[in-house]
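INTERNAL AUDIT FORM
Audit reference: QA-55
Scope: verify that the stored structure record matches its stored sequence.
Auditor: D.O.
Record contents follow.
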Amino acid sequence: MAELRDLPAAIVASSEGSSYVIKIDGYSRIKGQIEHGNYVKSTPFSVGGHDWVVWYFPNGCDTQAGSVSVFLALDSVVAKEVKAKVRFSLLDKDGEPVESKSKITEEHIFRSKDSD
């Protein structure tokens, strides 16, 4: 697993209902400091009664070198599996999603971070 690198205030987040916006300040600086395969983790946020975090790989992960990778991770201990569909979107300067830079995942099963 990639090493977690903490960059204070590199990711600023706010929760609005069932959406979560991450503003990445200093993208070029972060990209220059974080090596391929390493990530910055967002502050936890709550949606649907569960805590979540976003893992942001500014230089990609695994075979995705040269591109940005973003993952959603369950950050709660849960008794049951949690199913969710997720949409990741790059926003333009007006805060609107850029359709060509948006991805909707298939339904994914998330398990507790402490489960086997």
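Auditor finding: record pair retrieved intact. The domain at 11-110 is CATH 2.60.210.10 (Apoptosis, Tumor Necrosis Factor Receptor Associated Protein 2; Chain A).
Action required: none
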